[in-house]
Amino acid sequence: MFQDEAEFGRINKPKYCWWEKGIRPSVPFHHIREYRYAYGAVEPVTGSSCFLVMPYCNSTCMNIFLEELSKQYPDDLILLCCDGAAWHKSNKLHIPENIELFYIPPYTPEMNPIEQIWKELRITGFRNEVFATLEKVVDRLCDIICTLTSDTIKSITQRSWIINCFN
Questions:
Q1: Which residues, given as ranges, of the chain have pLDDT below 50?
Q2: pTM, entire model
Q3: Looking at the domain assignment, is residue 78 inside a domain?
Q4: How many CA atoms lie within 13 A of 112 on its CB side?
Q5: HEC profile for 77-141?
Q6: Domain that residue 135 falls in
Q7: Is the separation of the CB atoms in 25 and 17 below 8 Å?
Q8: Of 32, 77, 138, 151, which is most buried with the most CB atoms under 10 A?
Q9: How many domains does the chain contain in total?
Q10: CATH number of the domain bearing residue 125
């Protein structure tokens, strides 16, 4: 499985959009810095996944995520590919017995296919919209995550180099 975290919040970045020729579109924008973090792990061959929305990116939240992932797949040995974030390598990290972590090289997010899941979530649910509260951001994030089917996850994350490892 490939694991990562992504930040979602009330600060937005205007994105391109289609509009009638000759008219400049008005896109809402604000600078409120409130965030929540989506933790996720995906398996590109089967489309299996596990997601949690957490308040922080730190060892405590990572431990909660690893415990939930372990509970979701209790009979499997999970090889979990992570990036080099400090909380992935912390001494405070408690790795369940059925999970083994390994790491992608530094500065290579293209090797982690879950990055494309985050991109899809931002396009689908967070394009040119201002949220009144952080709870509305979390609600939207949860709604969008719940729409991800295993087929969708496979179509977004499968790479030939991953599939070839299992053939």
A1: none
A2: 0.84
A3: yes
A4: 25
A5: CEEEEECCCHHHCCCCCCCCCCEEEEECCCCCHHHCCHHHHHHHHHHHHCCCCCCCCHHHHHHHH
A6: 2-13+28-165
A7: yes
A8: 138
A9: 1
A10: 3.30.420.10
